[in-house]
Amino acid sequence: MSSPSSHESTRRRLTDQQAETVRRLTEAAREVLHEDGFEAMTVRMVAKRAGVAPATAYTYFSSKNHLVAELFWRMLVSSVPAPDPSLDITERAAVVLRDVALVVAGEEQLAGAVTVALLGSDPDVAHLRIRVGGFIRERLATALGLPVDTDDERVELLEMLYSGALVRAGMGYQTYSDIADRLASAAKLLLEEHR
């Protein structure tokens, strides 16, 4: 069964058939990134791999940045579960940040592409960047037992912590696996300071 997020696109709500096309395109993008890298990747190349006409691919994705951002969004939503209420607040937040960092762990081409794509100026990417940030904020607020629309300083500090760490990993200074462990440790330190 598909998730509700698989039927939402940056541009419109999707029918089952359209959602399947977008799924094939994002899976093909992941394969192309792995084999050829982000620099060589084009929307046409991805469309061919997915068995979709290039014009069809462009009805869903305005650019390769948009396609990579959508791929990351889908991976994030499917990989980062709601915080486990049986854990204490500090551990819940640490697990959320660790899970976020591990979304692209072990996939260097994808990880670098996500960093470039999410920092792009494409309006469709900007929309996804807001969705990604909102999703992570919701997970962090929930982990801390707060409402999503909170202005609690701890949530903002944790957001700054993960965004800096992920950029650092995206630039190749550390692996995403190493960053995941460091993020979890840093989150615990930060939250212990703000008790």
UniProtKB/TrEMBL annotation:
Domain (HTH tetR-type) ranges: 19-79
Pfam families (alphabetical): TetR_N
InterPro entries, A to Z: DNA-bd_HTH_TetR-type_CS, Homeodomain-like_sf, HTH-type_TetR-like_transc_reg, HTH_TetR
DNA-binding region: 42-61
Entry keywords, A to Z: DNA-binding, Transcription, Transcription regulation
Presence of keyword Transcription regulation: yes
Record protein name field: Transcriptional regulator, TetR family
Organism: Williamsia serinedens
